[in-house]
Every structure is written in C-alpha cells, then in structure tokens.
Amino acid sequence: MQDYFNLSGKRACVTGASSGLGRAMARGLAEAGAEVIGIARRAGALETWQQDCAAAGLTAHSLPADLGRLDEVAEIGERLCDNFGTIDILVNAAGLNPRQTAESLSLEDWQKTIDLNLSAPFLLARSLVPGMRAKGWGRIVNIASLQSLRAFPDGAAYGASKGGIAQLTRAMAEAWSKDGILCNAIAPGFFPTELTAPVFQQPEIAERLAAQTCIGRNGELDDLVGPLLFLASDASRYVTGQILFVDGGFTAK
Predict the structure, then answer these.
(1) Which position among 158, 190, 230, 245 bears the catalytic label?
(2) Is 238 a catalytic residue?
(3) Would you say residue 122 has pLDDT above 90?
(4) What's the CATH number for 11-193+222-246?
(5) What's the pTM value of the predicted model, to 2 decimals?
C-alpha cells in the first residue's frame, strides 16, 4: 500500500518557523521525512529551531529574512531556490496580530498586518510556483483563522488579512492547480503561541474558549501536524482550494 504521508525526497519551506504554529509545523514536516527550510525574522530563535531539529537527526536549514518587506519577498524566494533547490511544499505561517481597537489602529499597523499576513504569502508563493510547475507537483498551505469566518474584538486588521487569506487560497487553487500545485489552508482554533499569549494568560478566558469547542479543550501544537501532513502530501491529491478548520469543533457550535 502506498505511504501517502511520506515526505521523503520533498523540500519544504515554512515561514514563521522560529516560534508557535510555524515551529511546530516545520518540525512535523521534518519528522515526516522532508528537508525543511525555515524562514523567520528572528535569526537567533530560528537557529535554535534548526539546532533542535539537527539534534533529533532531522534535516533542517534556516534562512533569516523579513517577509514584511514586500519589495524583498521575490528575492527571498530566489535565494531559497538558489541555496537549497526547488521548493516542493510552502507553508505560509508567519503572522502578526496587533490586537488594537478599530478606533486606535494606526495606518502603519494596519499596513504591516496586511503586508505580512496576506501580501507576503502571495508574493512568496508566486516566486516558487515556476519550480513547482516544472516538476508538475507542489503544495501550498496557507494559515487562515477563525477570523476568516467571524469577527473577534480588536481584530479589524488581523481579521481582514485572514478573510483575505481564505479567498487568496481559492484564487491560488484556481490559478495553479492545473499545474499540479494544490493550494489549501489550515484555520487553527485557539492554540498556545506568542500571538495568543494575551488569551492564555487569562485562565478564565482560556477555559471559556475551551468550553466553546465540541471536544472541550483548546488546541495543542501537535494537533496541527496530522492535518498539515494531509495537505502537504499525496494524501490530498484531489483536494484544493479548501479551508480546513482545526479547531476542536469551535466553528461547529
């Protein structure tokens, strides 16, 4: 029987690999056999991730870069391919959430959020598509959000960017699936990360959110690995343009 989830021989790039969801997903891809290149702005934290992977016998590399500088994103894509070879799997996990009220949100913070969360995933993916197209195989996994569907307090910029990611994922699928490049998104529920620290630092809020799920708990980072491997492998060969909510049933209630 074919091992649909085996990623041996595949090369993956994960943005935001230095922490949180990106770090967990990058590790999961490496454990499935992929050669993983992590991108993040914080070089020290990224190097620590790489060293942790190496200590576990996994193949991982780091490429410090600031994806918020949109005029440099295409060049970052070129460096990826020049330094490591064609990328087969791209996971766009880098993100920013300013958590400001609509009235206090500055134009600068609005633009930074849209740039990193929405524009950079498109520009980086576009720079890597030619290599995937030449192979006739590619996987792009964006990170959507509960806010792709619904509004949360102090989330105007973040929610707008994640609503955009949902539609961008569908547009990517329409543009590139015929070339063997499948494009999907994972929409996580509440997981303990740096972005959600303000929530998890208040136990009563965390408990209330857990109670809103069907499962009865908030997410653990390992909960994301299986869904990611599905979307990053041949297991999803007839799945594209979809948003997979990994939220314990939060959106089902």
Answers:
(1) 158
(2) no
(3) yes
(4) 3.40.50.720
(5) 0.96
